Amino acid sequence: MSEPREHGATAASSLSASTPAAPSLSKPAGSGARGAMGETLLEVRGLQKHFPLTQGIVFKRTIGHVRAVDGVDLTLRRGETVGLVGESGCGKSTVSKLIVALERPTAGSILYKGKDVARMGGRALKEYRREVQIIFQDPYASLNPRMTVGDIVAEGWAVHADAAPRKGRLKRTQELLDRVGLNPDYVNRYPHQFSGGQRQRIGIARALALQPEVIVCDEPVSALDVSVQAQVVNLLEDLQDEFGLSYLFIAHDLSVVRHISDRVAVMYLGSIVEEGTDEQVYASPSHPYTQALLSSVPLHEPHLRGQKDRILLQGDVPSPADPPSGCRFRTRCWKAQDVCAQEAPALVDRGQGHPSACHFAEARMVVPVDVE
Amino acid sequence: MTDQQQLDLRKDAVEAGTTTGLASPSVDVTKERQNSLWSDAWGDLRRNPFFWIGAVLGLAFLLMALVPQVFARGADPRSCDLGNSRALPSAQHWFGFDTQGCDYLANVVYGARNSLIIGVIAVLVILLLGVVVGALAGYYGGLTDGILARIADIFYALPLILGALVLLRVGPSTDIPVINSRGPGAVAIALALFGWMTAMRLVRSQVIAVKGSDYVAAARAMGASSRRILVRHILPNAVAPVLVYATITIGVIIAAEATLTYLGVGLQRPAISWGLQIEAGQDSIRTAPHLVLFPSLILTMTVMAFVMMGDALRDALDPRQRA
Amino acid sequence: MTNLDLTKPTAELAAQGTPLLEVDDLRVEFRTRSGVVNAVNGISYSLGAGETLAILGESGSGKSVSAQAIMGILETPPAVISGGGIWFQGRNVLEMSAEDQRTIRGPGISMIFQDALSSLNPVYSVGFQIGEMFRAHRGLSKKAARAKAVELMDRVRIPAAARRVDDYPHQFSGGMRQRVMIAMAIALDPRILIADEPTTALDVTVQAQVMDLLKDLQQETGMGLILITHDLGVVNEVADNVAVMYAGEIVERGTVDDVFGRPSHPYTEGLMSSVPQVEAKGGRLRPIAGQPPNLARIPSGCPFHPRCARRRLGAEAAPGRDCATDVPPLRLVVPGREAACHYSEEVLGVRAP
């Protein structure tokens, strides 16, 4: 008879017991080798990525650029979770690809522990790729269907041979599977035999294998069922506490981002429009776009229904190939004035307590505070 | 229910939520066999009657090539008696006799070996060229792809039979080993040289499709080398269609070999080949139709066997059937 | 020809108290080579004019399959409607001729889907596709149909409708395409609109626009709306009543206020506590353990029992109410609320009757 065993609980204890044999997976948060909590790990400055738009079949000529990412600043400190929210096409996924060095930035810099990732080569880049891992959105597309789960999880060790001794890799793979809540006996199974949530756990185990400092989570739960989403969110939180991980958590779901993040950045059309702690951004949003976004999220509690500000945005997001002058949001903004078309507002604190890229930034409570 | 029980239940509920939830397997725990996509495909293949028809015919063909003595019923294809020239099939000699008075069954059976050698060698060369060139073109793209694709286009411009025809005509006057012999090796290489482009295009398009997948991005983000990504991630996911193509192509090559030989540029006497038999038999088609009928029949069945196996393989490997 | 009266205003029918749609013990199974998949296992509900009923469930709960059965767009085979009835204004649709069914689907019941792009034909302009409804069902001329199309695009608030009527689907954004779909669905003034995850593929700001539009259209026409979704927030903001589905069954049913305010089935309770909320950071999430069941192997007894924190098995269980062996019927727990759980009173915190 199948019954819900509390796998996660036993997993944690079995791990700490196995320390001497295999090099332990657990690294207490903030321990010496890892450096201090709160130390700046990633610093993104003025990041831009423009994709050329080409025309013609034989002779390709560039007729313009899609400004997917157009000036993004972000800071990620050790042990914290920074949430990056935005709607589809705002460039948040491109940011994740830039940070894990799958794409090269057009301009700007990504500093990891003070070194520019774009200028890294050979060994330094390999070391960076060991310390910064990524979890993808689609658990069906992100696992090689012809590799066993064990091979998928252990691939990092095959690439970084010095990361784990050849002996004992199987045992460590099984420990990892156990840690993410999967039966360790399934190392020889193939991805298609698992459900979406289970596959996402495999993806997490793969990211953990190299004991990274930073994990970029690119919409890690948005493809999962509601009841399974919470399992994966909890797992991510547990792993962060246990291993002192830092997350860049990219998602479109504002509720999940608020739940998991220490700080939140809101993105619109390639740049960040507002940034602050989760409390600052959600309880006193000051950029009109953030306000509209928050106002659109349906609330779950019947007694809160109808208590929030109704802000319905008109029209669609402009094309990133031809963004509006000045403020990107001005074409849909109810506060827009002439200055918005001429001058792009900087992402600075205008007295509302946290940075906001709006000339007329003004804190406004949109979502009712749950008094319960 | 007592208050204590109520409390316990509450506690359970809280615990169920506060520990990292268990992912119980969606797979049947009792099922020991580890199912890879390949073994699932085999499961499908086993249930396909066309695969079995093709496999039985193919196996018969293979055995004919390996141990022709058994199928020839003891007759030697080279011990001939002109007195039996063009004798019709009989109980002792099922396929009758050819013009030279040789046992025709033995001749047809012994012809399988050359067909098989040529089919297999040619397809191996096609696979090698197709996979290597296709993988390089698809993976590196850009200029590499441009050059390799144009080279393939040039070969496309030369039809298979015509290209092979020219090469085999010119071959004997050159010093290139194998090509100048007009043996099975020369025929196989001539056919492969003008038939690898489709395999290359198949591999190329598959590689391009797989290259963009998240698991390849994951491997790249992890720092895996190009070689590792190609060999471990891209090729295993890109070869299925080309395997199907290769299976069908064995049949096509066997038919093409018979054509070349029939046209007089393939295998030469005293080699034994279905093409030669059909060519020799056509003159006496009115008086001894069996001389054309039997080799053609066996040839057709052989080609059909490989095409049927290839079709079944395609059905089994089609990823759209799998969740 | 059917004797159904589709000309009478919906409001009039509502006054008579006849439900527009009644689904009675509907069962759908998929007969595949590897076995029978029980997608819908005896669900019943009714929908009145002007009512919004949300069908809430996760993937594989059977929520979309039941809607497809109503619309008659199940692929048969492999799907088979193996039992039950679908009553539209008092007549069983399943017993009608194919001809009569066609007169109901479109003018009577219509549907919009999650993926608007693949539901629209890429080679025809949207105006042509909307107009098609009028040409096919009302026999309008090409010119008149086009005018109607512009009118409808205006109604679903597509800006500059007259100019965009000749554009092709790929020239519209996701939200605008969904509006085109809605325009086609409401073209013939249907009594019932089934919206199958209408906003799942859309961003929240666009979702808010589309849900707003659906609400307004419903108020104008008085149509009944069946909203199929997995999003608790959308249900809370839009629906009057909700039916929660799990493993092809309705496990809880009632008004949204009641069900969301105080769930009486452990699955609903688990769903509510496993989703983070935007209005508060909240503490640790309390997920439901395990995975949704495989519909080819639905657990015995209560289908939710392997994941249920409140289950009672063997000696713990009251006689005849062992969660692993006794199937809990959907029963009235308190007035206006039904749940399929042996121990709903405990979940609700009321004394058992």
List the helices and strands and how they pair.
The complex is a heterotrimer of chains A (372), B (323) and C (353).
Chain A: H1 7-17, E1 40-55, E2 61-77, E3 81-85, H2 92-99, E4 107-112, E5 115-116, H3 122-131, E6 132-135, H4 149-159, H5 169-179, H6 196-208, E7 214-218, H7 226-243, E8 246-251, H8 254-260, E9 263-268, E10 271-277, H9 278-283, H10 288-296, H11 338-342
Parallel strand pairs in A: 3-8, 3-9, 6-7, 7-8
Antiparallel strand pairs in A: 1-2, 1-4, 4-5, 9-10
Helix pairs in contact in A: 4-5, 4-6, 5-6, 6-7
Chain B: H1 3-18, H2 37-46, H3 49-66, H4 68-71, H5 104-140, H6 142-157, H7 160-170, H8 184-193, H9 197-211, H10 214-221, H11 226-238, H12 240-262, H13 274-281, H14 290-317
Helix pairs in contact in B: 2-14, 3-5, 3-14, 5-6, 5-8, 5-9, 5-12, 7-8, 8-12, 9-11, 9-12, 10-11, 12-13, 12-14, 13-14
Chain C: H1 10-16, E1 21-32, E2 35-47, E3 52-56, H2 63-71, E4 79-88, E5 91-92, H3 98-104, E6 109-112, H4 116-119, H5 126-138, H6 142-155, H7 161-164, H8 174-186, E7 192-196, H9 204-221, E8 224-229, H10 232-238, E9 241-246, E10 249-255, H11 256-261, H12 266-274, E11 331-334, E12 337-339, H13 344-348
Parallel strand pairs in C: 3-8, 3-9, 6-7, 7-8
Antiparallel strand pairs in C: 1-2, 1-4, 4-5, 9-10, 10-12, 11-12
